[in-house]
Write a structure and sequence with these properties.
The protein has about 200 residues and is mainly α. It has one domain. Helix content is about 65%, strand content about 0%. It has ten helices and no strands. Helix 3 runs antiparallel to helix 6 and helix 6 packs across helix 7.
Length: about 200
């Protein structure tokens, strides 16, 4: 009786072990699918930053006109910061508008974050720098206010959560999930000697 039971258990175990991993654990297959969707999300959010850089650089008539293009002497920060008219930091942001130093920092930030996130490398740095940039932009638009300094509607649709918050969370998630390993150069990047010595570069 014991022999039969043992043999049955062994048979069941052998059959179970021979089953494909995805049959035993359906969540494994779902995980692969999730990684692909997360990689797609990474590429899309990276393109948001990269497109902003390209549009401001060449003036493609989306958010930036040709006359205001950076390559034509325009200031990438003046259009946005110069029109800040709401929130406790209005004066500060207005004073920053047109600064050549901030223009360079802003454009390099857009280019660096956009390219790195789309390639799937340096995601931790991109998440930190991108979140700081987005927090500043959130503060400039100050969605907490119903009216601007002139008493006109601010256009805010949510006092707390807007697209800046969503973008920042997406950057953090793709970095935390190592989303650059799928459809990106993340794995190759992680094997570089300098990255292995400095894990914060992952």
């Amino acid at each position: 009786m014991r022999t039969n039971c043992t043999g049955r258990v062994r048979t069941m175990t052998t059959q179970h072990a021979s089953q494909p991993l995805t049959d035993q654990f359906p969540e494994v297959e779902e995980s692969h699918t999730a990684q692909k969707w997360l990689a797609a999300t990474r590429i899309v959010i990276g393109f948001v930053f990269l497109w902003a850089f390209i549009d401001k650089l060449f003036g493609l008539h989306y958010s930036t006109t040709l006359a205001a293009a950076w390559i034509r002497g325009g200031s990438p920060t003046s259009g946005f910061l110069g029109h800040v008219s709401v929130g406790p930091f209005e004066g500060l942001f207005n004073s920053w508008a047109g600064s050549s130093v901030l223009d360079w920092l802003f454009m390099l930030g857009l280019l660096g974050i956009g390219a790195a996130v789309m390639l799937g490398i340096a995601l931790r740095i991109s998440a930190v720098v991108g979140t700081i940039m987005l927090i500043l932009m959130w503060a400039a638009e100050w969605p907490l206010a119903i009216n601007d300094s002139a008493g006109q509607p601010s256009g805010s649709t949510n006092p707390i959560v807007d697209y800046h918050v969503i973008y920042a969370l997406v950057l953090i998630v793709v970095a935390a999930a190592y989303a650059g390993r799928t459809w990106g150069l993340g794995r190759a990047w992680e094997q570089l000697a300098v990255v292995r010595r400095n894990p914060w570069l992952v």
